[in-house]
Each structure stands twice: as structure tokens, then as C-alpha cells.
Amino acid sequence: MKLLVAAPRGFCAGVDRAIEIVEESLKKFGKPVYVRHEIVHNKHVVNELMDMGAIFVEELEECPNDRPVIFSAHGVAKAVFGKANERKMTYIDATCPLVTKVHLEAKRYHDLGYQLVMIGHKNHPETVGTMGQLPPGEVLLVETVDDVLNMKPRNHEKLAFITQTTLSVDDTSEISKALKRRFPSILAPHKEDICYATTNRQNAVKSISPLIDGLLVVGSTNSSNSQRLVEVGKKAGCDYAQLIDSASDIDWRAISGSKAIGLTAGASAPDVLINAVIQEFKNRFDAEVEFVEFTKENVHFKIPKEIRVK
Fold first, then answer.
1. What's the whole-model pTM score?
2. Which stretches of 157-195 are DSSP H helices?
């Protein structure tokens, strides 16, 4: 059997930065450090940080006033910052800079009198955080083309749209086209909101799809960008595509008889999990492993000055 390993895969710059923020905060402040929501959507990463002394909570109310709290890479609503300030808490914002860019874009359009439309997934933390940058009713959420047809904005001439950063590029394109058809004057983002890492990983999957019988995506079930990679693989012609947390989740019977299997990983999946899958293929099939690089990534985001350990 041949194993085609797509690149880029795994950690993106925003995930690297968020994990480093937790690690450096533990060095600076000692244990425990609280993290509101999973810092990134990967169980392995969260468990490792818990072992180091991080405590993960869903709401600020679960945090004591005298310990630092970190806001996850997905971003939080403005109200969360307000509550932290009211309680005089020490907090560190690990929001991915590319998500922050969308937040600033939303605020800029709002200040110009536009109502926002957000293409995103309901209840995903990034969507909740982005919509929470503006007052209620100022951001309308659409998940499908049908949602676009049923929208009721207050003024068809004063609309702008933004998107969640981890969506399917192709699906988002269809929804944005529907928005432009129904609202010809709607303003689009100045630059693509879907992040470079999401786009690159999806394109890498498309590039290997004609060469494989099945696709394995390493990532957690609550990871939006990992789920999208499975969907992209299926749409690109993979007869079989499976999301796995680790090598132990692989359905070996489903891929038995395959000549070539593709492997990729969501932007929050660590190398240790990807390498374990590769090793398992070598052990079971004496597999020929080929790395297929779609493009190189050299993006790096600095951590906040206040927690850099000198």
C-alpha cells in the first residue's frame, strides 16, 4: 500500500501561538493558569496542557479572580473582556491574529453604518466571538444558500459580509455568490477571511485526491477545519474519508485492498499524532510513504509582550 501524506498539514501559526501562550503563561505565573474554552480544538493538545497545569473552563465565572485566564484562539465576545475587566482579572488574549482581523473588519463596517452578514457555523466559538463584537442584531448569521434567501436585513443597500476563518473554501464561495446575487451592493471582505492554513490544507487534499482510494484526516470531531477536510476529500472524489483522533481510530477493514491512502491533518493536530499514523501504516503494510507538498508555509505570529519570558 502507498501512503500519500499531504503538505501543508497539522499545526498552523495561530495554533502554534496559542499553545505557546499557555506554556509561557505557566512559566511566568506558575500553576494553575485558567483557559476559557479549549485553547485549540484538539484533545491531545488540551490533555498535554492540563498535565502541565492548565485548567480548562467554559465560562469566566468558573475562574477565580486571583489567577490568570487565557482566551482561546477562536476569540471571544467583547462582553467577556468587559467581565474580566470588572473583576480586575489578569487575562491574556490568544485569539488568532487572522480572527482578530475579521473582528476589526466587522467593527469598521459597523462604524460606517453597515449591518453585517456572517457566513459561519452556529454556536462555533469563533462565530460566537465574532458576532459578539457588535450589538445584538448587527450581525446576521448564514450557514447555507437557503439561509441567504430567507434573510431579512433592515436595509438591502447597507450590507457587508464576513466569514468564519475555518470554512470550506468552495462552500463559502457558493454562499458569497448567493449573497451578491440577492444583494448586489453588498460589500465583500477586502481580503479573503478564510485563513491561509485552512485554504492550503484544503487545496493540498484536492491535489492528492485523484491519486488515492481513501483519505484519513487527523483531527478532533469539534475541529471545524478538520471536518471541512473530510468534506473536501469526499467532494474531490475520495470514495472513503474518515476523521480520526489518532491511529487507534482507523477502520482498517474499510481501507483494506486500497492501493493508495491519503493522509492529512487539521490545523490543530500535532505532529506526534500524524507520525504515529505513518508508523502504523509502515508496521501493517510495509507501506511506501510519499510526501506531497502543495505549498510551503512560513507564517509566524508573535506572542504578547507581557508573557514573553526573557
1. 0.95
2. 169-182
pLDDT recorded at residue 309: 67
Please identify which of the residues 23, 24, 38, 126 carries the catalytic annotation.
Answer: 126
User: What digits encode the pLDDT tens for the residues 99-147?
Assistant: 999 999 999 999 999 999 999 999 999 999 999 999 999 999 999 999 9
- Which residues touch 240 (CB under 8 Å, ≥6 apart)? 213, 214, 215, 254, 255, 258
In order of their start, the domains of the chain are: 2-11+195-293 (3.40.1010.20), 13-96 (3.40.50.11270), 98-182 (3.40.1010.20)
Query: How many Cα atoms sit within 13 Å of 147 on the Cβ side?
Result: 15
Contacts of 83-86 spanning 24+ positions with Cβ under 8 A:
84/60
Using CA atoms, how far apart are residues 18 and 23, in angstroms rounded to an integer? 9
Query: Among positive and negative, which fits the CA dihedral 62, 65, 69, 74?
Result: positive
| DSSP reduced 3-state for 4 | strand
Any catalytic annotation for residue 174? no
Half-sphere exposure of 18 (CA within 13 A, CB side): 30
From CA 266, how far away is CA 10, in angstroms rounded?
5
CA gap 263, 310 in Å, rounded: 39
pLDDT tens digits, 214-255? 999 999 999 999 999 999 999 999 989 999 999 999 999 999
Q: Which residues pair with 291 in a beta bridge?
A: 5
Query: Phi, psi (5° rounding) for residue 36?
Result: -80, 115
Cβ atoms of residues 259 and 306 within 8 Å: no
Q: Can you tell me whether residue 155 is helix, strand or coil?
A: coil
* Backbone angles phi and psi of 280, in degrees to 5: -65, -40
